Predict the structure.
Amino acid sequence: VPAIPRVELLLTGNELMTGDTIDSNSAMLARYLLEHGIEVQRKITVGDSLEELAAELTAMTARASVVIINGGLGPTRDDLTAVAVASVASSAIEEQAAARRHVELWCAQRSLPLNAANLKQALLPAGAHLIDNSVGSAVGFAIHIGQCLVLATPGVPSELRAMLAGLMEHIGAQLGALQPHPTLRLQTFGLGESPAQQLINEHLPDWPAEVSLGFRAGAPLLEIKLAIADPAHEALQQACRRDLYALFGDHIIGEGETTLASCLVALLRERGARVTTAESCTGGLIASLLTQVPGSSSVFEAGFVSYANHIKQDVLGVAAADLARHGAVSETVVRQMAEGALRRSGATYAIAVSGIAGPDGGTPEKPAGTVWIAWGGQHSIQTTCLLWPAPRTLFQTLIAAAGLDLLRRELLGIRAVPQYCRLRRHPRG
Amino acid sequence: VPAIPRVELLLTGNELMTGDTIDSNSAMLARYLLEHGIEVQRKITVGDSLEELAAELTAMTARASVVIINGGLGPTRDDLTAVAVASVASSAIEEQAAARRHVELWCAQRSLPLNAANLKQALLPAGAHLIDNSVGSAVGFAIHIGQCLVLATPGVPSELRAMLAGLMEHIGAQLGALQPHPTLRLQTFGLGESPAQQLINEHLPDWPAEVSLGFRAGAPLLEIKLAIADPAHEALQQACRRDLYALFGDHIIGEGETTLASCLVALLRERGARVTTAESCTGGLIASLLTQVPGSSSVFEAGFVSYANHIKQDVLGVAAADLARHGAVSETVVRQMAEGALRRSGATYAIAVSGIAGPDGGTPEKPAGTVWIAWGGQHSIQTTCLLWPAPRTLFQTLIAAAGLDLLRRELLGIRAVPQYCRLRRHPRG
């Protein structure tokens, strides 16, 4: 084992080579390993070809201390990882009793018949150690090829995620004591990557070299990452964190795995309050995001998707005259949608949205991307009109996020106008 | 140049190695190349290290006919692609006049000062041919290293996309006339990958070698891909397609980019019908999936998220006595939810769902994963009870899909009971 451990990833799957699947697993692995102090030096991706897999694995195991294979553990004929590993390790392929029990149990729990395809997943290289898969039928496995530890992991992201801790046990045994790289991840909404970088450059020119700053732009959140290579620099890291909160803390939703919905559910629960939704162009997405959070039933009881005007009238009590006079995408209508949802549900707070997701339905005055949002409690409903043109589902994602964020800000008593409301304000709103 | 061209991708960037960026560029390249009949055999990803880049490039150019490098063309110090290529090609690095003009023009158009960082982007290996970048400051370039064509492309996705046609000119000159690979993609719901493979093995033992069969397991759809390397085999491909429709055609939603929601929206539109939703455990996801489809407003007017019992009563008219007697997760309640949504909305069809998403809320008789689904029109509501335990958001995804699929089957008059209803039937349902 070399002094600086060399860790390489071998990703396999025809769907990766054809571009049908975008690989997010290697990023998940790399982030997890990095937090444990392990850098990935190299990734190789090949299709479901026994020769390619075996050739890469032979070359990789000759120089790396750890190789993690992802993919190819499934039940079908083109899942070749176990066979490829066995061939490079000069091992036999054999049914492992514990793996068979896992497959049997997995099928039994789901009332699935145990077929030859499933049983193939119990065929592993002789001498391989099982790594448990708590959410899928394919077990992972660990085996040494020469000095190199080879770990085989499933390609289904949720199964890989569930296996990370099991992998670390083997990696820890191979590499010995590791220096973790403590990492803080601040989740922000409403700041672009380049404005965030610009703000930091301007206001925090003395950023310490020991704290490395990274951005990960997702939709809708931008993650800001503060990593240190040596735990001795934790005080510096905390100072940077405080600086970022001071600089744009109202855009920081939370840390770690926090999402806008999980943050809002927690805030509502703390207050013993409940929220309802009245959605037009977001079509139920806000309700869906809230109800994805475990335990959300204590803060969310009812949501209304009122696409058509007659539903806005009949179910939410929006005045027909206002619909006729101002149109569905208007301040008075979105306000009445919020009020109606509050009345109907008895909730404490409401989020209401009425806009034009496009691609069709826009007018010169209200082009696609126009949206009215209302949020707040019975006697404190606020509204804003944004113009945020984007492809349909991205628009829905961004506007649902904005609705959740605006109520989050209200609950926290944040008075600052968020960056996106300044930048995306509708010229006629 | 070998008879079968070998095309490899070399991706570079520390953000790819740390997992902060998920690589979508290689998928974009692979899909584009495949449409032009070119398979990518191998992808290698390394960080911004001159030694790693040069070592990989040396090995790749020795055996590939085309290597496409992505990333490392930016203005910063850690962008090393031009230097690495020059070193492997034994070329000098020199300012190219056309590249300098591009950078100058790009800066002038944006009123940006021309600085050393930008001018670095005009330094290219001697003998490299420029590839125009219509949307960014970094030009791409093409150069031969031995027999191998090396193409360097920018890491910003929009810039790479804008450069694809320019790349193809060089690749076409290198590889000569190319044969496109016609591919059929069948989208299925409710068949697992392993049951699908098993059915094909059993019923279609004479599957022709010329038609390669691939699976892409997503949640909730399983894509079955039929690819041929030679357009002369198109009749065989069509025969395989017909065989699959005969074998499990009721599980085939459609082809290409079809989703359950887009399929259902199209079926409803053909019939001039509308659908409404009454959702408990799926929390608005069915409504959200439907409204993600452009033009869905013509078939979807209203959805109800009735998490709490009093909402089921007040908004949907479910009888309090039935809620008390049978519980919210029961046949009579889910049926009344569907009826109430139909009444409230005036829609032709309804999908209603009441279940226990978990992780909490289950009982021994109705554990997490228990769900009643109702679907159909005013006088033809059907119901089923499934037991489909899965992590919360996956459960919601699967049950929303099942609801959409059951109505799809109803609209198409499919009488066969889907595989998932047979396998997941609740023992007490």
